[in-house]
Fold this sequence. Notes:
The complex is a heterodimer of chains A (686) and B (350). In chain A, 38% of the residues lie in helices and 16% in strands. In chain A, the strands form 4 sheets. In chain A, strands 15-14-13-16-17-18-19 form a 7-stranded parallel sheet, sandwiched between helices. Chain A has a 6-stranded parallel sheet with strand order 3-2-1-4-5-6. A 6-stranded parallel sheet of chain A has the order 9-8-7-10-11-12. Chain A is elongated and about 95 Å long. Chain B has helices spanning 18-33, 53-62, 120-130, 143-156, 201-207, 221-224, 243-248, 267-274, 283-286, 301-310, 312-325, 331-343; strands spanning 6-11, 35-40, 66-68, 72-81, 95-104, 110-111, 115-116, 131-139, 161-163, 186-190, 214-218, 234-236, 252-255, 278-281, 294-295. Chain B is globular. Chain B has a 7-stranded parallel sheet with strand order 3-2-1-4-5-8-9, sandwiched between helices. Chain B is α/β, with parallel strands linked by helices and 350 residues long. The chains are: A alpha/beta (686), B alpha/beta (350). At the A-B interface, helix 3 and helix 4 of A face strand 7 of B.
Amino acid sequence: MILIEAGERSEKAHDAKVLFASQLAARGYAAGIDEATIPDGLDRNQKYEIAPLLVEMPEQTVRHLIIIGAETISDETLMLIRGYALDPSVQVAATGRFSDLQVLAASRAKIAYAIGREPTMIDIADINARPLMDASISPLLAVGGNARPVPARPQVFVFVPPEMIEEPMTLPILSAMDQLPGVALNLITTGKSKEQIRASRHGHLSVFGYTEMTTTAFAELADIVAFFGESIPGERMAALALDMMRAGKVVIDCTGSSAFVARGAPALRGPADLAALPNYLDHTVLINLAEIGKRAGDSPWLNGNSIERLEKALGLRPSLPAETPARRPMTVFVPTNGNGLGHAQRCSLIAAEMPARDDCVFAAFPSCVSMVESKGFACLPLVQRSDDHPEEYANDVLNYLRLRRAVRPGDRLVFDGGYVFDSIYRTIKEKRLSAAWIRRGLWLPGQMNPVSLDREKAFEAVIVPTEAFEELNTSTGYGRNTHHVGPVVQQLSDDGTDSEALRARLADRFKLKFDQLVVTMLGGGVAADRSAQLQTLCNLLERRDGCLHLIVVWPGSRVSPAVYGWKRSRPVQTKAALALAAAADLTVSAAGYNSFHEILYHGIPAIFVPQMAAYMDDQQRRAQAAADRGLAVSVLASEMLLLEREVTAFLDKGKAADIRKNLKSIALPAPGNAAAAALIGRLGHE
Amino acid sequence: MRRRQSLAYVIDPRFPGGTSSAVAQELRVTARKADVSIHAAASRMFSGTEIAPQLKDVLVDLGLTVNWNSRTIAADTVIIHNPSFLKFEKIWDVRIIARNLIVVAHENFLRPGEVEAFDVGRCLGLIDRASLSLAKTIAPISPHNRQGVTRWLASHGAGPWRIAAEDWFNICAFPIEPPVERPRDRRGRHSRPGFEKFPSLADMDLCFPDHAESNVILGGDTFLGGDTHRPHWSLHPFRAIDVAEFFGMIDFMVYFTAPTWRESFGRVLAEAIAAGKVVISDAGTAATFSDAVVAATPAEVDGIVAAFITDPASYRRHVRKAQSRLKDFAPDAFERMFERLVATGLGAAA
């Protein structure tokens, strides 16, 4: 491992450490930063960015300590490195831009006194005579960037400084530019400016905060980058420009001071006026794209600004791809939100239809692990959010670390959920994954988070499993990447679980003779408390001789102790809830996507008690659609008396038979499981 | 009747520690032999600090005033103490005219491992360009310091510089205290708190173990605020207690530095010898004082201390012998050295 430290303790030095460590990591090195050195007050993006780099010292695998920006070295840094008491085998080097021999000698001496041996001193000026920036703390050398064929619709990234966003014509010009058919426009700016754009009528623009991804990830995404503003906008953007050039991509210098071109960098001198950029792109850049990139990549200046010289001076050798064990590309399903059961169930149904089923794995919350594994898929447990965590996204930072360790470029990621967590978004971008978002519809008004919709750009495909009834299919998008498939629904297998046999086994299991079976599936209790409805049902069914009432308890559910006191009501934790419902005379269920469609497609007479919570789908509309067609009954949670009446009607007055008859006669859309799997199978090929 | 020589000192009087102490002692001798003037160079190195107190006292005693930033300095002999004060200067706008220019090295030109300790070439170059003199001499202050000067000139070119034949040693005029009758395992060390003054923590543990009766560390500022917890160390910040009081708390002065740095002279060791203590240090640092300082490695300290405690007579013999060695660094010895060097300092024009 290469441990990165900086001479001084400042926000700028911290950013430089993160930048350099990230660059080394992109180059294939294990690079880290001592967690004891991270400053207070990091924002959310900074925390995600640094998380994979953090090291708790003492760390036995450290082989190199590199102190960047060593021309200024603080006592705090000296105390820190002295405290490491590094093994003599650890190589210590210091890089900096030393203005003269005395500055170098002084820095060298300070480090030597602190650690008790001489560091290797590397004057960046010796390596890089014409740097992009004079005062950078990081070595600022071209590191990453992979060349690729120029796509039909190149990705153009435009860095726009905050002061330019404030100008009245900037966003209208960018919005007009967004309509150019020949390029895909993306903006890079500060997080604050991004929020400002989101809140404006130009919120449809694709905007990235510049700390939202590593520079390497930006360089991978972009084909062209144009920089506006007065000069080079900091070390991070300078590193992006260098990586772009190294990958033979196009950098356009639109800065007021010709900052890139003046340094000798192989950038195009573009217009300083934003309004002129579209024509410049169209008539100068796009028609010469490949040749411009090639010339940039061949530049001697770039050669002098590339990392190889520093590697040679440090005695570093990047690890070759062959050093990591080979494996087949995987498809990783990541069902999240709530306790994730519904999402995990849906994903497992689609995964089961995948042609290369064995290459499908899951990453899911603990509540889903058992269910996923029971379907024959390996499952990486993720961490569920907790109020006990220091930040609401603390679990997601950990999930980010787990996911990025588990996947590799070339893998596919399939996300099923409503909110695209940072962990998902960053992993897709940074690992260059082909990704699909399974996004069922029927969101409550205002529920579709703007952040999530913004992150849709990370997905190659959005797969919308439709609802059984057309009026419920109000999808959030019909873009070219959005694909609608039939309802994803579980099919009950004919494996001997016929209803009569199952009922016999239940009678034996519970030592209770019954002629009526009622199954209740009111949810996990996470979204809403259903203990009152359960008690009502238990009380009602307790008085019915010959009745067995099974209360399906999902993993991770909160179950009231009171339900354990009844003779005829029994809580059961089962993976065969659908088989139980199919064998029942009546099912009382919430109207989640999976349960609802399973009930419809298996002709099960049911009373729906829809759950309504801020982050859930519109269960009430779904239940009502079935009720309107005479395919079920919908009872609101507050309608206890109606619930009693309907139960009686189903069990005693033939309503169950009527419903069953109606269900048999209705034509439902073909299930979309296989179609969804086919779409996922095509990821990365289109 | 011979004319009294004029002697101009060019110093940055704000040097803390050894350099100012040495110059202060030296002035008491040279002021008797010549007409002394003091020219202060206000370098960037000590910007914002004041004249070192030990120097201030001597200047008052001798009735000398400090000329700040003299543009022209002329004297028979000009002595520049510790040229490293120029290490941050780009230009030095001074003219020095002298028959004899002596640069007293003080700070080692080379650190262990032959690493240049500061931009020596810049400092000597500034002095050379600023001076017109018949002889330009670098005077080392100890055998180790001489080695560094010699090697540096050999590798970088001597130019106008020659090396003084004798060491321009620090005057050690400390009051001599007798050794204790029966030494105990009371160890200590005294230094400024910089990292260069301390060895690794592992070596500190060898020098100051928990089985010692006491371990007094004066100048241990860096250990006070850090994560190092050694309850058997009595840590005192630099200058927190009087040096005499400190010596009253120990019988053995155990003094090791970072392996990447070495004392150019080691006044602190001479002070401990004068205070009647057995002094243990690394061989390089001990060399200045011959066998007056016990040369050892940190791993050997325990054995050495135990041997002296077992044989108190040998402890007393060693201290007395070491104290007699201090006569080589007495004011009269310096006076003789000064006369020889200044008298023979004239050479070819440079």
